[in-house]
Automatic annotation (TrEMBL):
Keywords: Phosphoprotein. PANTHER family: STAGE 0 SPORULATION PROTEIN A HOMOLOG, TRANSCRIPTIONAL REGULATOR-RELATED. This is Response regulator transcription factor. Gene3D superfamilies: 3.40.50.2300, LytTr DNA-binding domain. SMART domains: LytTR, REC. The keyword Transport does not apply. It comes from Aquirufa ecclesiirivi. The modification 4-aspartylphosphate is found at residue 56.
Length: 247
């Protein structure tokens, strides 16, 4: 049976537990994370595949509706709230359903099955015409990262290089004195910039090929920075630069 990878987002512990329990009762749902706010949810979306969000609206720091507006690629979303005055706004955000608390398991199941139908229909269309579907997707030149409980927009062309620090990365931007520090993995960063002119040159560094000023003794110079190139990446770098070493 195909399962939807889902997360629940609710600042109230009781509401979150009830959503978790409802998810576990439906065999086609798989809970991958439970979040107390939009910022935790953003971190999950950056590192895991999420098909469906059960999202509270009235949360401290950022409303659920505001959170949805920051996402360039929105998973299917079911809003779960104690307030009915967000209904009009929710339709503008193209959510799957709008559930009022307290939510019965019957009403929850109905909304979840609706999400499953939409997911399967979308998947069938992509499988039927993958090339056509891919050609319609715009190549975004930005993404958002979580920085000190705020969502910060990063312009991909402005990135000079990225440095990995275990569970965090430093994103260096042209014209900015200090890098952006955010909790992400290098693997997830590669996925965000892979369709642009970027390359992994070291286990701890990704560089913007367009920003390279010179390369000497396996060290890339970008502005005042010298970035090491590992032996395992050196030949790939030269190939991408269309450079052949003299024999």
């Amino acid at each position: 049976m195909e399962k939807l990878q889902c997360i629940v987002v609710d600042d109230e512990n009781m509401g979150r537990k009830l959503l978790e329990e409802n998810v576990r009762q439906l065999p086609f749902l798989e809970l991958v994370a439970s979040c107390k706010n939009a910022f935790e949810a953003m971190e999950v979306l950056q590192t895991q595949t999420v098909d469906l969000i059960f999202l509270d609206i009235q949360m401290p720091g950022m409303l659920g509706t505001q959170f949805l507006q920051t996402l360039k690629e929105k998973p299917l979303t079911i809003l779960v709230t104690a307030y009915d005055h967000y209904a009009v706004e929710s339709y503008e955000l193209d959510v799957v359903d709008y559930l009022m608390k307290p939510v019965s398991i019957e009403r929850f199941s109905l909304a979840a099955h609706k999400a499953l139908d939409l997911f399967q229909n979308k998947k069938n269309k992509l499988e039927a015409s993958p090339k056509a579907a891919n050609s319609e997707l715009p190549q975004e030149d930005f993404f958002f990262v979580n920085v000190e409980y705020a969502l910060v927009r990063i312009s991909i062309p402005q990135i000079t290089h990225i440095e990995g620090l275990k569970d965090y990365v430093k994103i260096y931007l042209e014209g900015e004195r200090r890098p952006i520090l955010t909790k992400l993995t290098m693997k997830s960063m590669e996925a965000k910039v892979m369709n642009h002119s970027f390359m992994r040159v070291h286990k701890s560094f990704i560089v913007n090929m367009r920003k390279i000023e010179s390369i000497k003794q396996q060290r890339i110079k970008i502005g005042t920075f010298e970035i090491p190139v590992s032996d395992s990446h050196a030949s790939d770098l030269m190939e991408k630069l269309n450079f052949t070493r003299p024999s």
